[in-house]
Specification:
alpha+beta; 13 helices; binds MU-OXO-diiron; binds calcium ion; globular; nine-stranded antiparallel sheet
């Protein structure tokens, strides 16, 4: 099957359309150019040898690459029996582990909430039930307890062809099947869920009806907070103060802060806005283009004026932020923390810096866009939780420039500094933050291959940047040594070592940990440690988690590219230190058409929570024996219920070692 056909048939049509657009017209260097200069094509093709040599010696031009800290050397290796690559209707986990369904789309979360009834969906029911397409998962232990916790889960987006009977793909049908009632269900299925969990007989269960339980949706009241709040860019007819906004959209990955708040990243917000014909009349037409807006992936704008850029030009500036939620208070108003900039935030992982400030890493997930970090001005107070609640409103946002000599420079997005002046069209700091992508262009940030989760490791202070793919390699972006594969469908992982283990530092060093794909097919240019088995390599790293031992676990999102690796997405353990550095090992596999999201460990590593997103959707036509697009009536799998009347349901899985104990030991 041609790649063209593969790309057309998937759910990820929404996300893949986004990837298709070239929204960054700047002349900034691509990450590929940098790697090419640094490694040289021949070295990269030699594979892991070249990479390990670079990472274990002093850096190019005498810049010392941080020595492996003692704690990292002591990282234990992964112990489990690897599973095999493959694809079928079910999920699979390593031998000796249980992988149980914890929560499914439509499960009631509150007392009196209706049971899931796919033939009779309503906004009222969905607002009381677990949402669609679970993505980020955060785990917050309750009151120092080992058997009570809050689980925070993002619901990224909706697939109408799998959720509702008789619709099929509406973007292909001019939305003729859509009604306001269906749109209202979609809006209620977005956002996030906070659910209390209780451990009973060693197993985590959801506490239905707990007072902590909460649904956040596309209509929940939120506050705009930080430098952009009240600015002219975010004032609307409904909100002349520019401080009150309703809802959060396309919440992909996220993070949990040291003070126990939940960060929800707003990723492809552009897709929810409507009226392409009105772009040229929009006051910020150039910036709409830079952000790929309006994407018109949903027809909410046909029913709600705020999603129509002609009727409400500023509503779009109120999305694309990091939202901070206090899960301890279900009545609290979530805050959009504008100091962290507006772009397609994949996630927002926080690390406590050694000076007490916090750094939040965040990728802008689009081909050719940038990597950012935010450093707070104030310091974390470990004793007084309340004192930390506005820490993310003040600080400095930086964008990354990767140099060929192995250094990474963090360039501040501060109004009046460097090119970020009135002369270049920035009136004030609010404008720099609202149009952070333009600021990155002017600062000369490095164009990356779709930055997804950016995972700091508190044990080693290294930072792992998952880069998922870039199909414009070889055409619009030049092919290079580290990306010798045209279209780079398999991505790679960049490792950053901050200078002196200081996450506030404006400089650090970088290396490539692995390059995705099949190392046995030289044309794919994959780079893994030679010790990696035939099931241990993977493509398209997306989300990442670090366990309590400081070990890295990677979740993949190949989209409709999975037939090229021959395996469904899943979880791989990935060695980062010592001679085994770059060795992958497959731990979990999703059912056909699903994407693996949200790996998250309980505090003691005895449970691993996984989000199985959009089962049956991606690449169904390539599924042997199925070979057609999935719909509500006819899906490639009915995971996890496998009942003829129940459609596939995105669900949270909890993995536990039989008999207990830490995962992977
Ligand atoms: Fe929602 Fe970047 O994946
Ligand atoms: Ca993702
Ligand atoms: Ca993560
Ligand atoms: Ca993804």
């Amino acid at each position: 099957m041609s790649e063209q056909t593969v790309f057309k048939q998937t759910r990820a049509y929404k996300m893949e359309v986004a990837e298709d657009t070239l929204n960054n017209p700047s002349a900034n260097t691509t990450f590929g150019d940098v790697v090419n200069n640094r490694l040289g094509r021949r070295d990269a093709l030699k594979g892991m040898l070249a990479v390990t040599a670079l990472s274990s010696t002093t850096g190019i031009l005498g810049t010392a690459i941080s020595a492996t800290p003692a704690s990292a050397e002591a990282l234990t290796h992964f112990k489990f029996e690897e599973i095999q690559h493959g694809v079928d209707e079910k999920h699979h986990v390593a031998k000796g582990y249980d992988a149980d369904i914890l929560l499914r789309w439509g499960d009631p979360l509150f007392k009196g909430a209706p049971q899931f009834d796919p033939m009779n969906q309503s906004k009222a029911a969905q607002e009381k039930q677990f949402g669609y397409n679970n993505d980020f998962i955060g785990f917050i232990p309750l009151g120092g307890s080992n058997d009570r916790a809050l689980l925070c889960v993002n619901h990224e987006y909706t697939n109408e062809e799998l959720m509702f009977p008789g619709l099929g793909r509406q973007d292909k049908a001019k939305y003729v099947g859509m009604t306001q009632e269906i749109v209202d269900v979609e809006m209620a299925a977005h956002g996030g869920s906070i659910i209390e969990l209780k451990k009973e007989a060693g197993k985590w269960k959801a506490v239905i009806g707990s007072n902590f339980n909460r649904r956040i949706t596309a209509t929940t009241e939120m506050a705009l907070s930080g430098p952009v709040a009240g600015s002219k860019f975010v004032k609307t007819k409904a909100d002349p103060t520019g401080k009150q906004v309703f809802g959060t959209l396309n919440n992909c990955a996220g993070g949990i802060t040291p003070w126990g708040t939940y960060l929800m990243a707003e990723e492809n917000f552009n897709g929810y806005f409507w009226n392409k014909e009105a772009v040229s009349d929009h006051p910020n037409a150039e910036m709409l283009k830079r952000y790929g807006a309006p994407g018109q992936w949903y027809n909410w704008g046909a029913y709600y004026d705020r999603f129509d850029i002609a009727k409400e030009p500023n509503e779009i500036h109120r999305f694309g932020w990091i939202v901070e939620v206090d899960p301890m208070d279900p009545t609290s108003i979530p805050k959009k923390r504008t100091a962290m900039g507006r772009f397609k935030h994949e996630g927002a992982e926080t690390i406590l810096n050694k000076d007490g400030r916090v750094t939040v890493y965040s990728g802008d997930d689009e081909r050719g866009d940038y990597l950012y970090k935010f450093v707070s001005k104030g310091k974390y107070d470990p004793v007084n939780r309340e004192a930390n609640m506005n820490l993310l409103d003040e600080g400095t946002l930086f964008v990354a420039r990767f140099d060929a000599n192995g250094t990474v420079h963090w360039l501040p997005l501060v109004h009046g500094e460097g090119p970020l002046t009135k002369g270049n069209g920035f009136e004030n700091q609010a404008e720099v933050l609202v149009f952070a992508r333009k600021a990155g262009d002017l600062l000369g940030a490095t164009k990356m291959d779709r930055p997804e989760d950016v995972q700091p490791n508190a044990k080693t202070n290294k930072v792992y940047v998952c880069l998922t793919n870039n199909k414009h390699r070889g055409s619009k972006h030049p092919v290079d040594a580290a990306n010798p594969r045209t279209k780079n469908p398999f991505g790679h992982i960049v490792e950053i070592s901050p200078e002196n283990n200081d996450h506030a530092a404006s400089v650090g060093t970088w290396n490539i940990l692995v390059q995705g794909g099949n190392p046995n097919k030289p044309d794919q240019g994959a780079v893994f440690n030679k010790a990696t088995s035939e099931n241990g390599w993977f493509g398209s790293p997306d989300n990442a988690a670090v366990d309590g031992k400081g070990r890295l676990w990677i979740a993949t999102d190949q989209g409709s590219n999975w037939p090229k690796t021959g395996t469904a997405d899943g979880i791989w353990a990935l060695e980062t230190e010592g001679p085994q550095r770059g060795t992958g090992k497959m731990f979990f596999r999703v059912p056909i058409g699903a994407e693996m999201c949200g790996p998250c460990f309980s505090s003691d590593d005895s449970a691993l929570f996984l989000a199985v997103q959009h089962p049956a959707a991606d690449g169904a036509k390539a599924f042997p024996g199925f070979e057609r697009n999935s719909t509500f009536e006819d899906p490639a799998t009915r995971w996890p219920d496998f009942k003829p009347s129940i459609p596939p349901r995105p669900s949270i899985v909890v993995v536990r070692k039989q008999g207990g104990g830490a995962i992977g030991t």
